[in-house]
Design a protein that fits this description.
There is one protein chain. By secondary structure, the chain is of the alpha/beta class. The chain has a domain of 190 residues: P-loop containing nucleotide triphosphate hydrolases (Rossmann fold). 39% of the residues lie in helices and 23% in strands. Helix 3 packs across helix 4 and helix 6 packs parallel to helix 7. The chain starts with 10 loop residues before the first strand and ends with a helix.
Length: 277
């Protein structure tokens, strides 16, 4: 059975002393995170630093090697699969590539979660879907096929689908990747406005500094296998930590390594190659 805890006021997600990884390899350790209702939280770090691993842990796709992860006051590791599925329905996820169904039009893509999980009357489906499409500026595109809209529009359709169930916690995996400057600015403002409108919490898995800092209440920066810093965007901008300075300013030289770190799995693979030669 799950162990329930009394969360702080408005707290939706909490990591306490968490270590995360795959098999024998630990990606991150000593992670402490708090996410509360009404917040936009940016999880940042370089490529391969473990940002997406944090997203997978928050949604119960992987579990902590050490420490505890609570979502909505429930320990994710203690939930049976049906309970975990119910909890996930309180979350929305915007995948990095959108993950839209190309054989469905814009309307049906956004309607899919409603039809799958709630099955309301058709009149209610139409009302809710058009409302969410209107929120992302695409109400009049409801009839279009995915092949008929631009990449930036597709990202907004995916955002409408992520919020159609009005989740309490929304997770965005690289929401600004591949967007032109105008679409990027619109998407950033949408995330802030939707967080305020739905009174939910939004987590951005991102390495985009300017646009994330413009809308975030709290920033967590991971690297070197751990949580390096946390605080407001203003506090992060004032940091003198060499890693933080290098990351925020995009400097080529510093403690952030270009090469992916060697792991026991890689060494095992390399040894196997030697045996074949």
């Amino acid at each position: 059975m799950a162990s329930n805890v009394a969360p702080d006021a408005g707290e939706l997600l909490r990591f306490d002393g968490v270590a995360l990884g795959y098999g024998d390899f630990t990606v991150l350790k000593d992670i402490d995170i708090r996410v509360c209702r009404g917040q936009v939280v940016a999880m940042m770090g370089g490529s391969g630093s473990g940002k997406t691993t944090l997203l997978r842990a928050a949604t119960g796709q992987i579990f902590a090697q050490k420490g505890t992860i609570h979502a909505f006051g429930q320990d994710l590791a203690g939930l049976a699969r049906p309970q975990l599925q119910q909890l996930r329905q309180r979350m929305g996820v915007l995948f990095q590539q959108g993950a839209l169904f190309t054989d469905l039009n814009v309307f049906e893509n956004v309607a899919f979660p409603l039809r799958e999980h709630q099955r309301p009357p058709e009149a209610e489906v139409i009302e809710k879907v058009l409302d969410k499409l209107n929120a992302v500026g695409l109400r009049a595109a409801a009839h279009l096929r995915i092949s008929e809209i631009s990449g930036g529009m597709a990202r907004r359709v995916a955002l409408a689908r992520a919020i159609v169930l009005e989740p309490e916690l929304i997770l965005y995996d690289e929401p600004f990747a591949g967007l032109d400057p105008i679409s990027l600015g619109i998407t950033a403002r949408l995330i802030r406005d939707l967080t305020d409108r739905l009174n939910c919490a939004s987590i951005l898995i991102t390495h985009d500094v300017p646009d994330s800092f413009a809308i975030a209440d709290q920033v967590y920066i991971v690297g070197q296998g751990k949580l390096l810093a946390s605080g407001s965007p203003a506090q992060m901008s004032e940091s003198t930590d060499p890693y933080i300075v290098q990351f925020l300013k995009g400097q080529p030289d510093g403690p952030i390594a270009f090469h992916y770190p060697e792991t026991p799995a890689f060494q095992h693979w390399l040894d196997q190659q030697g045996k074949r030669s």
